[in-house]
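ok so for the tutorial part 2 we go from a plain amino acid sequence to predicted structure tokens. step 1 is just haveing the sequence, like this:
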Amino acid sequence: MSSQRRHPGGSLRRPQLSINDNDDDDNYSQTSQTSSHSSQSDTDLLQGQDLQSSVDPFQSAISELESLVIAHLNSFKEHPGIKTNPHSTDNVHKELELLLRPILEIAAHSGPAQARAHYWKSSSSSAVSSSVGGAAKDATAGGGDGGVEGVSSSSSHRTIDEAIEHVHNVLNLELIFPVLLETAQSDASPNKRAAALSFFHNLFMEYKLPGSYLDYVENPNLIRYSGTLYGPFEKIQKHAPPSRMVLKQRTMNKANKSQKLLRYWIEASSFCILPGAFTSMEKDDKIASRAVISSSAVLRPALNHVKDKIKSADDAGALRLFLPVMKMIAGVLQRLFVVAASDTASSQHVGGGGGDALRSACVKFLEIVVLCFSSREQPAEGHRKGMSRSNVAKEEDFALENLPVGHPIITRQALEEVGEDAFTVLRGLAMMGGQVKVDSGVKSDVRMSLGLDSYGQGPTPTLQIVGILRPAALSYLELESTMNQQVSEENPFPTLDRSEIEMDFQLNQKSYALTINAISMLATNRPTFFADSSSCLAKRAMDPPTVENSLFHMSKAAIMTVNSHLRASCLTLLRNSLSVTTGASDILFKALASEECGMKIQAEKALRMATQAASLKTAGRAARNRAAVFYEWEGTALGGGGEMDTLGSKRKRAGEDKLEQMRAAKAARGLGNGIQLPKNMVDACELILLNLGNLPPSRAAVTVGDKKKAKVQSDGKRKRLFTLDFLIDAIITNGESLISNENKWYGRDGGDAWVMDISALVSDDEGEEDDEIMTLKTTNKKKAPVPVSFTLDTKIMDAALAATEGNSGDHVETYKEQCKVAAADAVERILSRSRSVRDPSIADFGNQIAAKMAWSLQKLKPHNELKTAADMALEAVSSTAKKLGQNNMETGILEKLPTFFDEFPLVPSFIQYDINNSSADNVESIESDKAQDKPALSLTQRLLNEAILACGDDKEAESRNLEKFENTLHLYITSVLHACEMADEKPLDTQRKKLATMVSSSLSKDISMIPVVTEHSLELLSVLCDVDGITKKVTEISRKTTNQNLATVAATNAAKASAERRAKAALLALRDAAFQRSKASVRKYAVNCAVGLAAGRLPSSLSVEDMALKLVMNVLYPKSPDLANHVVAAATNELERASNFACEVNDSIRKSNEEALLKKPELISNPLQPLSDIEKNALDSVRKPANLFMALCIRQPEMIKDLMKFSCKEGADVLAKAVRNNMPKLSRAAAKKYGAAKIALQVAELADFTETAILLSFLDNLAPAAGNAPGQDLIDACLKIQDERICDGHKDPRFLIPILSGMQRRALESRLPELVNAEDNVFMAALHRMSERLKRQIYSFREESEEAPLVGMTLCEQLVYLHKLDFASANMPQKRYLQAITLCLENDEVYTDRVIMAALDHSSGTFLHGEPLPLAYMRTVILTCSKHESLHSWICNVLLPRLVEGQVYNDRRQWEGWMRCAQKLEMGDSGVSSIEAIKQLPPEQYQNYRQKYPQKDKVGK
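step 2 — the prediction. this is what the tokens look like for a chain of 1501 residues:
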């Protein structure tokens, strides 16, 4: 790069571009042709210019700008991020802004100015060069329609458009934007991050200034533009203006520049919004508030850009910017609600940081969201045409009226839903002074109703935002409904008791003022919100915040300011005429006239003004004149015959004159040498028709004579009659029809093998002059019966006769070969012509002829373009066969196709040709035409019809025709599959994607129309759902997303969406086949394919499997009993296949699990999770058929028998694990539909003893931990099941576990011995289930009454009742009794020291009241001393003295335990000793204790 240049003062100055009025600006005019001769001095001048052009001044200027940008960027990066000049009055933000100002000037102004300066200089030098360069430079310096190619040949940029684009790419896209984005995302200083965000905002505003990149507006009616980006239009309007194509390209370039800047701006803002940018809360909140302000600034421009994209039918381009915008909105809202709600402990924190700046910025952002996602007009308001608010709205404003309709995702309804919820949230903030606490259950319910996952992700971006806003809105609406229920005649405006309302966060003075401003502004600018806004502010004004009832930590002055703001806003709204028309004036007047406000006089005056303004809207002219209201007649603005109409007529006539001038210019060009026909066929035909009048009336005659017979024949072969057909043939065939070929006797015009004798028309004395013009005077003609004769070459005639007679020879073989070539060329001409004609009937007729010829001309090898199509068809078959093999599908369905290729080679080439010629342009033109302008059937449809309708009445012929039809259909499907595969291979190729979408859509339609559908064709059709490849590619590219490959990521995601749409079309075709086909086997196979896709047997992606599952469950199954039976049978087969697979891989899973447990023994803690990768893959394989079958079990509960049979099959452990994982959904759904008790008994009757594990899992999920407790009917059902399923004379206690949380404590106490006798895991699971609904009461022993029996058993109660257990009467060994207590004590995570202390304390308390201590009581105390050192103090100071008080020494066993415990703690290491409790013993017991445990000296110890 060149050395850096600095201007005086340290800042860059914008380069001044001066253009001399005398300059010859001929860059917009066509370069005229000059003579090919030039003088020696001119040659020397050109050589001198070539030497000077070796160094490109344009590149040098760009390098200098790059150096300046790099220098200033380095200065910005090296800035410490704090104020460096303590004597300056500017803060650090202003200092950083001044540091970035030179970069802003270069990015917005200096770059395009350099491009324009280079262009004008180059155009001036080009004028000199064109005057001296001669004809040799005319081709390179030609003007063209665009008028932008007059740049010097020394530059690499030949147009001003290319120069501006190059400058923008080099300086902005490749240098400035990435560096500042990286600064905004990773710089350690929040001030520098904020400066980078502010730079994008300032740059967007600078882009709109004169001379910058967005200073360009195209006039759609005239071929001109406004703006100075490409130079002053007045300088060049005397020359030919730019073409429409150039103007359209410039508009596209402007939109692309705007989109790229907005993308960088949005990405920088979104990243800075995320919490955790800094470890310091203060810094994190500081940059987040700046990022929210930046997001507020970018929201409207981004939405306007999305609007323009949708308006130009660029749905994908609109979605590319819409998705980041929605992500940014979700980030701001999560910062306000989700993160703030989780940080209520540090009150007044938003997003985990202190201060009110971030919250205020979020409230302002919420206001802008409501403005953008709402309508300007009231739904019922009938504005007159030309007088609506939208016609006078600002250009930068955005509302739902601006959004065009037609986009599948970006719809007004979806955005309006977001706006409504955001407005409700704003009302809640204003009414409550903060956000009401959002219950977690409300969040989960909202997410479930919207189809969002646990992370808030959903199918559309708007639903994710609704999932954030709606819980907060519902929390306020619940309070509002409660307040409305309290409304009465005595108290029309009830107040809320705010002392008991929990809040997620609260507003301070600044954020509260912004909230009130937002509500007031929305009422004024969005009339649809006026009534609700007025009601909200009025109610809050009547119940204002005070020091006593305020939940805020605001001062008295701040509360007075807020109240004053509320009253002022209510008065402003009352003064508005909308208060009268919407009926909101009543509540506003009552609020202002109330005792709390005391503004009755001001309210009366405001109400009179509003009433007068509202009446004037519908008053007559006299009343308006009296009120001095200006208005104008509607007809003037509507073009009812006034000046506006005249101006429109002038513009229309001017446009027509320009069109006529263009046509005249085309006609003036003529058809001489060097003229190139336009690529557009319409323009080419128009040029031909305009120049037909320029053809000479006659041409030079061919002179023939008897003496020069050879010369006559030669001239006859060389010269032909020039007709319109001759000219059109030359254009259509791209000049091939002009090639002379004597052997091509089968040509359209007879070929050169035909000889035309016109000697009868030519006199003898004309034979010597070949170039003389032929005259047709009657007096000079020879009298002959046949004036003109045609003869065929004798060699060709002999070969034709010999071939007819069956002779052989080289000439016969040549003739036969030419016949085949002739047939192939004829077929190709028919196809080519049928694609180019406009008449649909002719096109359909050509398709019919071609279809018949394809089946008639057997073994005829195609040529030229058809040969290429045939090769592609063969490649499609091999590619499909390879894919079938990779997916373990049957490949035999394609084995007959190679033979079919050899017998009917034209059929595959026709099918592929039909697909290849379905280009995007043809698609758009056909789809825009009316239905009657389309051919009746496509070529492929004609081929299929001809195959099925071929002649033959016997069964053998019918079978042969069916085979031909099936092969043709397979070829068609494989070609479509190959087109889709090619589109997935190159996601950036838009043409491939459009072609794949069109042919897949046509295939689904054709499948529903063709008379016969085979089972194999449906299986091939299901391969269209295999979009796993493009899905993996999207995942891989998304992981590697950078600023440089954003376009690639977006294109790949668009390709994935397109592939999923094609898969959906295939699923719809399967649905139609199942619904419409009369053949039962076809319907059954269509159902099998759909079930196979839903079960994962046929390859697809997760989204396609979900669509297939919905198709099976919601469409096919409820359609008819026959289809329901097919669905059940197919699902049963899929489950059986999964069971067999599970048995096959069981050994390998067991081995891999053992190895995994050796490495990580903690994996066994969750029995439902896979332990190894092999088990994980197997679990993924069997989960899908299991889920499908379990979904059907909800419809038919008797199918649960098959579910248990296959999942409990020996060796099918992984399938059983998959079933248990999905069992909660099945149990809850079945219980909701049939009742928990009924379905429990029904499933128990279906299960045998080998299927007990699945039955227990089902029963366990019927009564989950969350939700209502098990009802008495379910309890009775489980008890009945236990009584009926007795094994070896014993009841299985596992059947009690699901209902233990709902049983009364008395019943639990009576069944406790049965649970203790069970296995350890069953016993511990039972204890857990008893207490799972009593988490808040785990440390208490509840008192029970007869009127209110207790349910469940707390942890404290469990230990108490376990100690009281009478193991002798329960026939329980004492060892098991003690072991059960030990199991609880060892589980110190559940039975903590506090739980044990509560149980021991309760038992010791009852001991004082005369109840004996349990047998294992002191044993438990001793074990507690060993395990919980934290309880030593309580045992020494409370428990042991209490036991002494209760005379524990009277019980020999308990007294022995007491002495052991006291001795253990007497010399405690932790400073806690039981010596005081020992001293409280009576003398006799004290003497006994000392005899057994003598006192030891601490020193001696």
